[in-house]
């Protein structure tokens, strides 16, 4: 079976993808600098999968480490999760974001070229559509300048990979545009473990539920949406992980650069998320309405028809599972991996 290098494999989406890869009998090599993750996640991945993987602690910006990995292992393809992802922080320290997300990706692709490895699945984001189009968003719509530096790095890397693929037909890139990943592994043993105050809705809700935070602030209730709160496309992290295995199989067969939206196609409001979380899990989430958060858009959900048609992928989990599994993980691990 093929051997896959997974950068950022100890992180939230990476760890779930490692389980999916091991289940599909791939050999897995993880490179992660642990700047936003714990080695414990990979211990648990191996326990859940009943199989082992190789872990190398290192940075994608370090060419020496990359060359060593490509020399030591016969890597067939790369899944590239490593990077920084906090939208607000990217406005404070843009150069750090350019360094990890853009220079890091260039460094990785250069090492791949030196090693003769030409297949890569890239973690992109729905943010590359900017706020130029109405939802559902489809891949034929032109990308637009995101309104934050994090999103900008995703757009730059996407465009760079497109140009690279156009210059040399050996390259094969999948650009997976994630919508809003939530949920956790059904066992509750791995999940999202943000450092400090969570930026994203779901970990904030679970931390209120577990008593770590006092109340949820709902950013804006005057949007042009059915209940006035923001609408997003929440996708279970295990479905997202499985999309990587499907994209990998596709890329092992095909050349070029292709983008796929990975979402459920269903828009859900912040209030619906809060209310459903309370109902399904039997807990109360204290909340207040707060002003809109800078940079947020009213509505963002996917047209996922291309991924379903071309990747043979189909989301399996419902909103109820996402909410149940997020809570299951947080309840079992109130301090995350610590
Ligand atoms: P995460 O922070 O949990 O995982 C990223 C991993 O990369 C972490 O383990 C971190 O330690 C590692 N890392 C960071 N910089 C590194 C470097 N220079 N070298 C080596 N390792 C490094 O985040 P995640 O939610 O799992 O996201 C994975 C990818 O998906 C990221 O590229 C992110 O931008 C992208 N993405 C995430 C979301 C989301 O909402 N979670 C949405 C769209 C896209
Ligand atoms: N929200 C709140 N309160 C919170 C956190 C979020 O009301 O404490 C609201 C937001 O205003 C938004 C919704 O919940 O309406 C979802 O917010 P998230 O921060 O969870 O997710 P975003 O849609 O803002 O961002 C996600 C990813 C980014 C990606 C972006 C683009 O986290 O990486 O989607 O699609 F760039």
TrEMBL record:
Q: Which GO terms describe its molecular function?
A: UDP-glucose 4-epimerase activity
Please give the cofactor(s) recorded in the UniProt entry for this protein.
Answer: NAD(+)
Q: Domain NAD-dependent epimerase/dehydratase: where?
A: 4-263
Reactions this protein catalyses: UDP-alpha-D-glucose = UDP-alpha-D-galactose
User: What organism is this sequence from?
Assistant: Acinetobacter brisouii CIP 110357
Q: What is its EC number?
A: 5.1.3.2
Per the record, GO CC terms?
A: cytosol
Taxonomic lineage of the native organism: Bacteria, Pseudomonadati, Pseudomonadota, Gammaproteobacteria, Moraxellales
Under the subunit heading, UniProt states: Homodimer.
Question: What is the name attached to this protein's record?
Answer: UDP-glucose 4-epimerase
Q: Is-annotated flag, keyword Metal-binding?
A: no
């Amino acid at each position: 079976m093929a051997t896959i290098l997974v950068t950022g494999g100890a992180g939230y989406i990476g760890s779930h993808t490692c389980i999916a890869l091991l289940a599909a009998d791939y050999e897995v090599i993880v490179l992660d600098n642990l700047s936003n993750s714990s080695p414990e996640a990979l211990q648990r991945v191996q326990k859940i999968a009943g199989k082992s993987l190789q872990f190398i602690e290192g940075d994608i910006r370090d060419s020496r480490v990359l060359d060593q990995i490509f020399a030591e292992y016969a890597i067939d393809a790369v899944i590239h999760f490593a990077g920084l992802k906090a939208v607000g922080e990217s406005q404070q320290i843009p150069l750090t974001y350019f360094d990890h997300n853009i220079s890091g990706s260039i460094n990785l692709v250069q090492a791949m070229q030196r090693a003769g490895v030409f297949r890569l699945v890239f973690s992109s984001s729905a943010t590359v559509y900017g706020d130029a189009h109405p939802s559902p968003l489809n891949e034929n719509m032109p990308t637009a300048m995101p309104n934050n530096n994090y999103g900008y790095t995703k757009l730059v890397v996407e465009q760079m990979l497109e140009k690279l693929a156009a210059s040399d037909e050996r390259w094969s890139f999948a650009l997976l545009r994630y919508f809003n990943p939530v949920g956790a592994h059904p066992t509750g043993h791995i999940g999202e473990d943000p450092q400090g105050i969570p930026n994203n809705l779901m970990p904030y809700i679970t931390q209120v539920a577990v008593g770590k935070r006092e109340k949820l602030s709902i950013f804006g209730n005057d949007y042009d949406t059915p209940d006035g709160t923001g609408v997003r496309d929440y996708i279970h992290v295990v479905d997202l992980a499985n999309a990587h295995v499907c994209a990998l199989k596709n890329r092992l067969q095909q050349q070029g650069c292709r983008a796929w939206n990975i979402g459920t196609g269903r828009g859900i409001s912040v209030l619906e998320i809060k209310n459903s979380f309370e109902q399904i899990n039997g807990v109360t989430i204290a909340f207040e309405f707060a002003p809109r958060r800078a940079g947020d858009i009213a509505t963002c959900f996917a047209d996922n028809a291309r991924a379903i048609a071309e990747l043979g992928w189909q989301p399996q989990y419902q909103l109820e599972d996402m909410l149940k599994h997020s809570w299951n993980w947080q309840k079992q691990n109130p301090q995350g991996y610590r």
